[in-house]
Write the structure tokens for this entry.
Amino acid sequence: MSRVGKNPVVVPSGVECQLTDGIFQAKGKGGQLSLALSQEVVVKLEDSKVAVTPRTNSKHARQMWGTTQRLISNIVTGVSQGFTKRLEITGVGYRAAVQGSNLQLQLGFSHDIVLPIPSDLKVQCDKPTSVSISGIDRQRVGQFAANVRSYRPPEPYKGKGVKYENEFILRKEGKKK
């Protein structure tokens, strides 16, 4: 049984939710997002809460129950508050900068890495060693942050590379003579 799916999603004030033809839509101060619902679950809008229940007792219906509840919760949170991921860059000469609609990374390669910033995301570099990615879609924010991190993930010996702000790098001891 899903423990996550049992809890209804509370819709904050300032967010409008609609349910039409198997599509859940939410509109708030951040923007508008929608989700195509699975046939395995039933979604009901009651007052300022969204309740999700499985249509049958099959394994797939129970799996989609918690998943759908969490996706709806992410949409409601995204249009009301938004999501932010922060990355830290560690290493001599490693830095990042936003130039127009591109993110330029210097990560110790012979060339700079230039990433186009998606139109629905906002990227800021307060310091040359920190990158802040924000947007209303949690999946898009997380995927872009993972793409940036993938160019130089942190290594375990000196900790050089791109890491999430609260990520802990398990360090290894170097060679002994």
The radius of gyration is 21 Å. The chain has a mean pLDDT of 92.
